[in-house]
Specification:
Blueprint lengths: L5 E2 L14 E4 L3 H12 L7 E4 L4 H8 L3 E3 L2 H7 L2 E4 L6 H9 L8 E4 L3 H4 L10 E7 L3 H9 L6 E8 L4 H11 L7 E3 L2 H32 L4 H10 L2 H12 L10 H13 L3 H16 L2 H9 L11 H9 L3 H13 L4
Parallel strand pairs: 2-3, 2-5, 3-4, 5-6, 6-7, 8-9
Antiparallel strand pairs: 1-9, 7-8
Bound molecules: NADPH dihydro-nicotinamide-adenine-dinucleotide phosphate (NDP).
Keywords: Oxidoreductase
Protein name: KARI N-terminal Rossmann domain-containing protein
GO molecular function, one term: ketol-acid reductoisomerase activity
């Protein structure tokens, strides 16, 4: 794999956006941050429209001085640029039914996550541009870093170049939301989706499983709940290690640990060949993620995720995870720390 191209402010021309009506569908985490950043970058308020149902998000947008449109068909008709910034699982229904039929045939559609585009769940017209501008940050950081005059990491790509000028639009919009200040990395919906889903379905489940098993074994060996919770995560040591890894280097951060620790970690990890894990990871990547199997299964439970109680599959998973000794022990420790026991 080669090096990815990185785009900076100097690669983007904000002039491309002059007189364009820019509609933000959603004013949540990303919508509110990106719309405010874009306005701060000099895009006139009259060019910006927030499309949101009547509720508190719409009220927040109004309070911040934005024009708000509750009727999605009206918002769709006027949009030259449409940022889709509502939760991924509701995008196909809302976009395909309420926006797609009314959108201009040469509109630019912006997604902040690759999932729905990669799995072909959104209906676009051939003359439209479809671009991804995907911050690698939560919305509050997208806003606060911009307010401090700093950038944030972001992926950018053109997925459908209907007008032939998709890249110019993608870069101008990236710059307007503050994403090219630190450098926006050229990527694709495939790359973004694969990395996201792999982290969520392969890497982190194994990390959670390893913590669960480590907790059980050490508890059996006589370690207390308090000592284990603090040793393993409540001290924030793992968070510090990852912070050092980001600053100093994934392996170089080990130099901050004791010699015994450095020796143990390096010799231990190099001894583990990883063959079984490699096969397990490949199975998830190819047979669960890239095959579309996960996407298909998730589409079938999407509607249930809005339900209350045990019929919501996510609630059911949370309930099952409470059976983990690690979770039970942590509850006891936290209750005791709060003086409740
Ligand atoms: P939020 O959960 O914050 O979205 C909330 C917004 O969506 C509100 O405006 C809400 O308005 C609207 N909304 C929710 N349900 C519906 C619906 N059924 N119909 C119409 N509007 C609806 O989303 P995020 O900002 O977290 O995510 C937006 C996109 O950004 C996603 O693609 C996500 O993957 C991506 N992303 C998110 C990051 C994050 O930090 N969260 C990081 C990087 C990318 P109301 O309820 O009033 O309708």
């Amino acid at each position: 794999m080669g090096q990815a191209k990185i785009y900076y402010d100097s690669d983007a021309d904000l002039g491309v956006l002059s007189n364009k009506k820019i509609v933000f569908l959603g004013f949540g985490n990303q919508g509110s941050a990106q719309a405010q950043n874009l306005r701060d970058s000099g895009i006139p308020n009259d060019q910006i429209l927030i499309a949101n149902r009547v509720d508190s998000y719409a009220e927040t947008a109004k309070a911040k001085g934005f024009h708000v449109e509750h009727d999605f068909a009206t918002a769709a008709k006027v949009a030259d640029v449409l940022f889709i910034l509502i939760p991924d699982q509701v995008q196909p229904r809302v976009f395909n039914e309420q926006f797609s039929p009314k959108l201009k045939s040469n509109a630019t559609i912006v997604v902040a996550s690759g999932y729905n585009v990669f799995f072909n769940l959104l209906k676009f017209q051939p003359g439209q541009d479809v671009v991804m501008v995907a911050p690698r940050m939560i919305g509050s950081s997208v806003r606060s870093l911009h307010e401090k005059g700093r950038g944030f990491p972001c992926f950018v790509s053109v997925e459908q170049n209907g007008t032939g000028k998709g890249l110019d639009a993608a870069l101008a919009l990236s710059r307007a939301i503050g994403a090219t200040k630190q450098g926006a990395i050229a990527s694709s919906v495939r790359e973004e989706t694969v990395m996201d889903l792999f982290a969520e379905q392969a890497l982190w489940p194994n990390i959670i499983m390893m913590f669960r098993e480590a907790f059980n074994i050490l508890k059996d060996a006589g370690c207390s709940d308090e000592a284990l919770c603090y040793e393993m995560w409540m001290s924030k040591e793992p968070a510090e290690i990852f912070e050092r890894a980001a600053d100093d280097g994934f392996v170089a951060q080990l130099k901050h640990h004791s010699t015994v620790s450095q020796f143990g970690q390096l010799s231990g990890s190099l001894k583990l060949e990883g063959g079984a894990m490699r096969e397990h990871f490949k199975d998830i990547l190819y047979n669960q993620i890239l095959s579309g199997k996960f996407c298909e299964a998730f589409s079938q439970i999407e509607d249930d995720l809005d339900k209350e109680g045990d019929t919501n599959p996510l609630n059911e998973l949370y309930k099952r995870s409470e059976e983990m000794e690690l979770v039970k022990a942590e509850k006891r420790v936290r209750a005791r720390l709060a003086g409740l026991l």
